[in-house]
Specification:
By secondary structure, this protein is mainly alpha-helical. It has one domain. The two termini are 25 Å apart. The protein contains five helices and three strands.
């Protein structure tokens, strides 16, 4: 079996391609992890932050949600935490957004499984100082 040394560990030949794909997926998934983490923290503390009582007054955002931004009632119907929840779940961007967030969740699962697999398959290099 082919082995290659990377840093302080030996990578078995069958594991090396996993490292390449693991890094590629991680770069893309990192963006969505940041969005999920930030919006998740905000949602967990929405009452303390008071965003559950703050209403959106932006005309373009009200129009985005399909409310008549010129109507008086529209200024008191859409809360900030609803918008943040929709960003968190991807619904803010429609069907495509939910599919992207689902793909991000699948990417995180793949990263978890490949990370565990690569960790399990690694072989530590014996330190020459201990000889």
């Amino acid at each position: 079996m082919e082995k290659k040394q990377e840093g302080n560990r030996i990578i078995k030949g069958s594991v090396r391609p996993w490292y390449r794909w693991h890094r590629r997926i991680a770069i893309v998934a990192a963006f969505f992890v940041i969005i999920l983490a930030v919006t998740g923290i905000i949602l967990n503390h929405n009452i303390a932050l008071g965003i559950n009582k703050d209403f959106i007054t932006s005309e373009w955002l009200l129009d985005w949600y399909g409310y008549d931004s010129k109507a008086a009632y529209a200024k008191e119907i859409l809360t900030v935490d609803k918008v943040i929840l929709d960003i968190h779940t991807g619904r803010f961007f429609g069907k495509f957004g939910t599919l992207v967030m689902d793909a991000s969740a699948i990417a995180l699962l793949i990263l978890s499984f490949t990370g565990i697999y690569m960790w399990y398959r690694r072989v530590p290099v014996k330190n020459s100082k201990n000889k």
